[in-house]
Amino acid sequence: MTPLITVKNLEVRAGRKSLLSIPHFDIQSGEVLGIMGPNGAGKSTFIKALSLLEKPTQGAIFFKGEDISNDLTLEMRRKFAVAMQQPLLLDTTVFQNVAIGLKLRNLPRTEVRQKVAYWLNKFQISHLAKKQAVHLSGGEAQRVNLARAMVLEPEVLFLDEPFSALDFPTKVQLLKDIKSIIEQTKTTTVFVSHDLMELKYLAGTLAILMDGELKQTGPTEEVLSSPNASASTFINDWKSLLN
Ligand SMILES: Nc1ncnc2c1ncn2[C@@H]1O[C@H](COP(=O)(O)OP(=O)(O)O)[C@@H](O)[C@H]1O
Ligand SMILES: [Mg+2]
């Protein structure tokens, strides 16, 4: 089967410094891929390149076998939704924040209302619909951010450390909800985190990124139980903490 996304000879450089170097990488349809690595490893750089937010220095990205590296059209970008650690919400109500993408797509008002109501309910924030975004707690704001991403029914959902700023109970509840939503919708998901607990819970496949290079990729359990020489320095630190 053709992978949903294929990356070939991807290079991101800042001046002469290589930030990311990925010779070949596939993401399968329906996969929940975790990307783990230390600070500064290039995780966000990878997400930005994959989601077409930033053009790589070199290399190609294929979507369903088609080279989309130079296709930075609205139509292509709309296949992807990105949620980051700090939700950048607009200074308006929760409803409007979730509705904005659909309004920009000129959907009829009744359809906008219906879809927004559906996703507010899914993320258990229906009661916040009329609340101003500035008054939300961190957990509520991240729920709005994720609802705003999912309402667009993306082909790929990119999550860049979306739970890192949340306190533990808030994080656990949101992890449970997002897991069930991803499973129900079968959304292909790329999930960046430096937290092994989050990754074990959510990601079926795990890629270890260090110094801009993918050191190991495979089923999450397998990578964690048998890290190779390159990945083990990082993974064993985590394991020693958890055991
Ligand atoms: N625009 C840039 N110019 C120069 N260096 C950058 C730029 N963006 C990121 N970097 C550097 O690239 C490396 C990877 O950054 P990033 O992808 O944000 O890492 P991560 O998300 O894994 O913490 C870091 O060393 C960072 O300082
Ligand atoms: Mg980052």
Brief summary of the model shown:
With 243 residues, this protein is of the alpha/beta class. The chain has helices at 43-50, 74-77, 94-104, 109-122, 138-150, 168-185, 196-202, 220-225, 229-242; strands at 5-14, 17-27, 32-36, 58-63, 66-67, 80-84, 156-160, 188-193, 205-210, 213-219. The protein has nine helices and ten strands.
How would you describe what is shown here?
- Strands 6-7-8-3-9-10 form a six-stranded mixed beta sheet, sandwiched between helices. Strands 2-1-4-5 form a four-stranded antiparallel beta sheet, with helices on one face.
- The protein has helices spanning 43-50, 74-77, 94-104, 109-122, 138-150, 168-185, 196-202, 220-225, 229-242, and strands at 5-14, 17-27, 32-36, 58-63, 66-67, 80-84, 156-160, 188-193, 205-210, 213-219.
- With 243 residues, it is α/β, with parallel strands linked by helices.
- The protein has one domain (5-242): Rossmann fold (3-Layer(aba) Sandwich), CATH 3.40.50.300.
- Strand 9 (205-210) and strand 10 (213-219) form a beta hairpin.
- Helix 3 crosses helix 4 and helix 3 (94-104) runs parallel beside helix 5 (138-150).
- It contains nine helices and ten strands.
- The longest helix is centred in the C-terminal third of the chain and has 18 residues, at 168-185.
- Bound molecules: adenosine-5'-diphosphate and magnesium ion.
- Residues 43-44, 160 line the site of magnesium ion.
- Pfam families: ABC_tran.
- One of its GO terms (molecular function) is ATP hydrolysis activity.
- This is ABC transporter ATP-binding protein.
- It comes from Mesobacillus selenatarsenatis.
- Keywords: ATP-binding, Nucleotide-binding, Transport.
